[in-house]
């Protein structure tokens, strides 16, 4: 069993440590893992043969180790920040023990990897925030004794598999399950409910490949729940190992790395989620298929939109820029770069280009050519208006709340924030509160279109999305 698989776990243990190319030269030391902030190795001695000095950074691509209880460890992208050699009574440090500190970016606890490229996993289990709430599994049952009037709490099953999905091309397989584990404390006993998703490619992959899939799953869960989703645990699964005669299980490798702690939020209510697991369970394979197939072509949209969702500290005008760009790119990818040209437009375009006088400065000529060619393209205002027009009338009216000039106002504010200028400033939103309200409208518009892309009807998600919009704008 892994010590504590949480990405924010804190523990320490002693062991022996060495470089892959020098397996016979082992040093004693203590590894400290501190909740995503630090992975620090304190060594009695130094792995740096050159003894290059206290102030010089010495890098080690990989450090291997074994804990006191026999756990293999691999530290990746490690660096020694210096070493110390205490002075003895006569001012000499030649006979005194050298100590050093090494900081690593990543720890694989449970297996040795001699090179970074060889660190591959058959599959990965990931636990995401709000996953249990979204799945909504209740394993408990209450039974009442009619004679005594007493109530008994029962747990019919401590395990449930929620879904299994295989992408049509076979590039990814997902499964989700929930388990109950016992918790003990002095004078009390309880159970803890955990859920995880397992990601399994057709062949072993490096962590970076799994990180992309986790990014896509986080974004999807964020869309479903309306609340940012973060990875709380990542465990890699390796080869099957025989733990007892006839009993084989995949080796589990705890994965720890430096990560920014996610902000604590109040518990989420399923009532506030745009869509719960029950609401999408019947067509989940098509929903997941649509999401993963769109992940690459909409990558920039996801980075802009979900980047704003995850960053509570981003200024409202910066979020505004992110959201307008996300909607603009979404429309360009899904609707194209320009509308269908009217009859004769191309001929008029060629005529206008030919009319540019010879001898004009090149910069001016180029600006004129670009303007003529792009004149039939969508502007930001056009794209926003088109996206809004594609929503159902009742939804559209509630989002705009009578402000049917919203696309033009957004375009003017974007132009000011992009180009500046006193004249543009007067046409932009007047302050943070107006940008905040505009952001909520833009966010809601894009959410509706993302759900529509997944085949989820507007009316199914409208109650939660519009309720949130009203609550945040009041």
Overall description:
With 474 residues, the chain is of the alpha+beta class. It has three domains: 10-111; 119-284, no CATH class; 297-339 and 377-473, no CATH class. 36% of the residues lie in helices and 28% in strands. It has 14 helices and 16 strands. It has helices spanning 131-135, 207-225, 277-280, 284-294, 299-310, 316-335, 345-354, 362-374, 380-389, 393-400, 406-419, 422-427, 432-453, 458-473; strands at 10-18, 27-34, 38-44, 58-67, 72-84, 99-109, 120-121, 123-128, 141-144, 151-154, 159-166, 173-185, 188-200, 205-206, 231-244, 247-257. The strands form three sheets. It has a six-stranded antiparallel beta barrel. A two-stranded antiparallel sheet has the order 7-14. The protein has a two-stranded antiparallel sheet with strand order 9-10. Helix 6 (316-335) crosses helix 9 (380-389). It is globular, with a radius of gyration of 29 Å. The two termini are 50 Å apart.
